[in-house]
Design a protein that fits this description.
By secondary structure, the chain is of the alpha+beta class. Helices cover 49% and strands 8% of the residues. It is built from twelve helices and eight strands.
């Protein structure tokens, strides 16, 4: 029996994506018996193999050149932050990856202009997101923030005392090294079909690709959770740990505007990136019930950050509390493409210490100059309580 090689383009890591940037032999498939009979002659076999190999090599080379030209065109921007991350999902949230959402939210909080590059190309460590800045590549959200602080002089934690910075780091590590795994379990293991429907994969084989991506990701999440240790517990125990983390965050937040007080800091980007998954990507699940019910201060916290730093990301008021009715997770995304450079100007409650100037038109204000943040969140909370009643 003769065998032909199948071609694919799958890239998987801690956060996974499908990219068409590389051609990789991933499977073999049997050829029809009639074809095998035709190819018994060694000369024909060698000729066909050489011709097929030449065509594949030519196709791979042309694809590579096209991608290189495209990347050079798009990334030829001096002093621009190039943010590599996954494609926007279909449900309206900017990213299904807490770390990608954290990094992009941080850039907006720090008022840094950046360019999204949705190529799905993972870092050498097999992770997302990562950035390029003037030909330098930086991997890992924590190292990216350190790099930007050193290179550009921004610091969201400048108002924090040494003790507060220590607390901020401890909270960040709890969220990213513990709470993250429980949310990943809920997304990619316990609710994998719902998460699959949110993936933005197009083409004639989109359903097959989404199925492969979601289920392979689920298997990898379970394997990595087992290695971490949290995956050795039962489903109920994993959810119990998740609930403890959420209650801890709710207690730490209390009635403050942000985690560390009245001013936004880097920990808010991390906490928001993870809580947003519970808030907007897991309809009908225990995380959603908690954040939109008993732990409503976390929901208001997420909404406060969404409105301030993501003015183009619209949600219905019904999405702010849990009524027991889950909406379809595959509704079209309402997050528009803001162009080559995504930019959100900061609107601090106090004079900004950042060195970057604001643009002439604010994304979160209308032409009259009235800001969408003029209304107090307390009034919205009262409105939500009336709706719930």
């Amino acid at each position: 029996m003769q065998w032909g090689a199948g071609l694919g383009a799958l890239h998987f890591g801690r956060n996974r994506s499908i990219s068409c940037g590389r051609l990789v032999v991933v499977a073999g498939h049997p050829l029809p018996e009639s074809t095998a009979t035709i190819m018994t002659d060694s000369w024909w076999r060698k000729t066909l193999c050489l011709a097929g190999g030449a065509l594949l090599a030519a196709a791979a080379y042309l694809l590579h050149e096209l991608l290189v030209v495209r990347k050079e065109q798009e990334l030829d921007s001096k002093d621009a932050i190039i943010l590599h991350q996954f494609t926007r999902p279909k449900n309206g949230i900017p990213s299904l990856s807490p770390f990608c959402l954290k990094m992009e939210t941080y850039l907006r909080m720090a008022d840094l202009p950046y360019q999204n590059y949705f190529d799905g190309k993972l870092s050498p460590q097999g992770k997302m997101p990562w950035i390029e800045y003037n030909q330098e590549q930086v991997f890992g959200s924590e190292f990216i923030i350190d790099f930007l602080e050193e290179k550009l002089g921004v610091n969201l934690n400048s108002s924090l005392s040494p003790e507060e910075r220590a607390v901020s780091r401890a909270i960040t590590k709890m969220v990213e090294e513990h709470f993250y795994w429980t949310i990943a379990y809920c997304q990619w293991v316990d609710n994998v079909e719902e998460t699959k429907s949110m993936l933005a994969v197009s083409g004639p084989l989109s359903e097959l690709l989404k199925w492969i991506l979601s289920h392979v990701t689920g298997s990898l999440v379970k394997r990595e959770m087992y290695g971490h240790g949290i995956g050795r517990f039962s489903k109920d125990e994993v959810y119990a740990l998740m609930e403890k983390d959420m209650r801890t965050l709710a207690t730490l937040l209390g009635d403050k505007k942000y985690i560390m007080g009245p001013k936004v800091s880097s920990v808010d980007a991390a906490v928001f990136g993870h809580l947003a998954q519970a808030m907007w990507t897991l309809p009908g699940t225990r995380p959603e019930q908690l954040i939109k019910g008993e732990l409503i201060n976390l929901a208001m916290y997420c909404e406060r950050i969404r409105r301030k730093f993501w003015p183009e990301w619209f949600v219905d008021v019904d999405d702010l509390y849990y009524d027991g009715l889950s909406e379809e997770p595959n509704s079209p995304s309402q997050l528009p493409d803001l162009g080559l450079y995504s930019r959100s100007d900061s609107f601090p409650e106090e004079p900004s210490t950042l060195s970057h100037s604001a643009t002439t038109h604010s994304l979160d204000s209308d032409p009259t100059g009235h800001s969408i943040f003029d209304s107090d969140m307390e009034a919205e909370y009262s409105e939500m309580e009336q709706l719930k009643g």
